[in-house]
Amino acid sequence: MKKILALVGTNANFSYNRLLLKFMKKHFKQMADIEIYEISKLPAFSVDVPLSEQTEVWKLKQKVKAADGVVFSTPEYDHGIPAALKSAVEWLSYHTTVLKHKPVMVVGVSYGRQASARSQVQMRQILISPDCDANLIPGNEVLIGGATHVFSKDGRLINDEMRDNLEECFTHFIEYIQIFENVDEEEVKMPIKQPRISEAYIKFPTGRLSLKEVQQIFSTIPFEIDLIDSTDHFAWYSDKPNREHVRDVASLGEPVTECHPPKAVPAVMAIINSFRDGKRDVVTRPLWMNGHRSLIQYYALRDVDGHYLGTIEFTGSVEYILGLFEKGAWDKGADASTGASKHEDNAPAEEDDTTADASTGASESSDDTSTDTVAPAPAASEPAGIEETDADTGASESGSVDADDDAADATTGASEEE
């Protein structure tokens, strides 16, 4: 079933266009899951609106990205679309590409005999403009005039001719979406599931791996990985099943400021900038995610010469490890696999188990080795939103960027809850 986002093209308290979308939601429930969005939630568009006041804008962008298609329902004011609708489209096209190649459909209701014909022409021109670049289905006009006479008191579209036209046009729209989904599956999603050159090998200093093996390693390891590249764009994520945070290929290539909630942006940029400036190399966040304890670790990705390549994030549940600890798996003198002591009562003391190689039991660390071997002490003036971390481990003393850890963003610790 297709997921459709339908925007009410006015901020009026009563609107026949809202009534039309509610009718469509119920009438086409077997064909699509239609979510109705009220643009009255948005602030008026302005490049000067503070980021802290753009949370609702960010939420709308996420809804557009997640939708298979978007329906714009517009009335007609003075031969054009309402100012509130133009403002909403500005938010969806200014410094963002959420509408780019997105299948869209325009419908409209008005009181006059010409319905919303002229406002729909304007809306179509806007949607195919370079800044929007949406995939607008051609023709397919839904023009409902005489609004006061074509709807029943319970909100049904009772004009047979108009209802038949709406059904035909919406069916065409769903078929139109399917065409682009087939293209996306072949050209976008396929590389995520399977490397294009599956038989190629990569030679590392420590061995050789095929691209298929590399892909499956990332899908198998017990934590998920995300990468923000050196230009601060979301570049890659591991295709691990049951991720703590679901990622989508639609977000690839987005600037980090677009793929995080506005209130999280200052914190995440502070982390990235501290990595880029060489002030830090690791930040750790223990927090609750999806009802269980998780650990998020951010590392500065650098080349062999120390040049910054990006920020890499590791996220995973630590419940299994904590369970082993609580059962005494690391008790001094215990066998790592059974918990049984290997030592005689008079045997000499072994080295501290906490510094032992996991595969051999032999210590590989010197007295001055630590978890973060290259991270300098935090600068005297830390970036806003970053808690001070322990110089040896990178562990946060407060645990999270945001207090609402239950719904924290895996890359920032900030809440994404709506």
Please estimate the helix content.
25-40%
**Percentage of residues in DSSP E strands:** 15-25%
Within the CATH hierarchy, at the fold level, what is the topology of the largest domain? Answer: Beta-Lactamase
CATH class of the largest domain: Alpha Beta
User: C-alpha Rg, in Å?
Assistant: 27 Å
Any idea what the shape is? elongated
Element-level helix/strand string: EHEHEHEHEEHHEEHEEHEEEH
Tally of separate domains: 2
Alpha plus pi helix count: 9
* Terminus-to-terminus distance: 23 Å
Task: Pick out its properties.
about 425 residues; alpha/beta; Rossmann fold; Beta-Lactamase; 2 domains; six-stranded parallel beta sheet; five-stranded antiparallel beta sheet; 9 helices; 13 strands; about 25% helix; disordered C terminus; NAD(P)H-dep_reductase; FMN_Rdtase-like_dom
Structural commentary:
The protein is built from 9 helices and 13 strands. It is of the alpha/beta class and 418 residues long. It folds into 2 domains: 2-190, Flavodoxin domain (Rossmann fold), CATH 3.40.50.360; 198-418, Beta-Lactamase. Strand 12 and strand 13 (308-317) form a beta hairpin. 29% of the residues are buried.
